[in-house]
Design brief:
alpha+beta; 6-stranded antiparallel sheet; 3-stranded antiparallel sheet; 11 helices; 9 strands; 56% helix
Length: 304
């Protein structure tokens, strides 16, 4: 966030060079500072892509910035650096939001459980992952139910909003089934006999479904990826021709066409598609799961 803000400030200063009168022409050198702060993340991604013998939008933006720099158009290089730095920041923010939503779902899983020993009746605190099927678990007020099971003792209210999305606590009594991750919000202790292990519980399956859904790509994502793989090399080839061939007709002509080629490289870059599409699906799936809605993949979300 800091580097994006600094890049933006110096980009604004650099474009003041275009004000009438030419008094602030030297302000274009502020663009150098903007590039220094805005381009490193893009350069690193571009280098990582080139090492795989590929070429993507990061490479196109880096090429445009470097070309503008070579031509002495520092304000134009700053524009590329700042605008792409913003897109990179927004992409990272959306990704972090999706991970945070998934992390909040994972945090619903209790780490420990109060297991009632069958022989002595004493309560022993054990890791939730080690609860055997058929064990009796004490769930006091405010405790999370560690595994799916059946109430064998007690009457209370259970908050199942994390699983079903229902905001009102649900009354539960002996014989009723309860899900892992739900919370005893009543005033009475419940004794739950587990029917499944923690790994096979409703909450664990919910987490697994969300993770798998984020990994499954929709038809739109596949189309965008396929389009970008074919489109990007064509754009690059045209930009290279525009930046090189006209130099044969003179330095001034070559300079003008090189500048036009760099502009074409920026304008034709498919970064808006390649960045926004997967991030949108990932954030949407995690946000829906956080509200108790499990959508099985980007294709299903797209259908909605």
């Amino acid at each position: 966030r800091f580097n994006v803000a600094i890049s933006g400030v110096f980009w604004l200063l650099s474009i003041l060079t275009h004000l009438p009168g030419g008094r602030l022409e030297n302000f274009k050198y502020f663009g150098i500072v903007s590039v220094i702060f805005g381009m490193p993340p893009v350069m690193l991604k571009a280098w990582a892509t080139l090492r795989r013998f590929q070429f993507d939008s990061n490479c196109m933006m880096a090429s445009a910035a470097i070309g503008s720099f070579v031509l002495g158009e520092y304000d134009e290089a700053a524009s590329v650096a700042f605008l792409f730095a913003i897109s990179d920041y927004l992409e990272g923010k959306a990704t972090r939001r999706g991970r945070k939503a998934l992390g909040e779902i994972v945090s619903l899983r209790p780490e420990y459980a109060n297991v009632i020993m069958p022989n002595t009746g004493e309560v022993k605190i054990v890791p939730a992952q080690e609860i055997p099927i058929g064990s009796k678990v004490s769930v006091r007020t405010g405790d999370k139910i560690p595994a799916d099971g059946v109430i064998v003792e007690g009457t209370s209210s259970v908050d199942e909003s994390s699983i079903t999305g229902e905001s009102r606590p649900v009354p539960k009594e002996t014989g009723d089934e309860v899900c892992s991750g739900s919370i005893n919000v009543g005033e009475t202790q419940l004794v739950v006999k587990t029917k499944q292990s923690v790994g096979d519980s409703t909450l664990s399956r919910l987490i697994q479904l969300v993770e798998e859904a984020q990994a499954n790509t929709s038809e739109t994502e596949k189309l965008v990826d396929s389009f970008a793989r074919k489109y990007t090399p064509v754009v690059l080839a045209i930009a290279v021709l525009m930046c090189t061939l006209p130099w044969a007709f003179g330095a001034e002509t070559g300079r003008q066409w090189m500048f036009s080629g760099l502009i074409f490289c920026v304008i034709a870059c498919p970064c808006a598609l390649t960045i926004s599409t997967p991030v949108t699906y990932s954030a949407g799936l995690a946000a829906a799961a956080q509200r108790g809605i499990v959508i099985k993949g980007g294709s299903k979300l797209e259908a909605l």
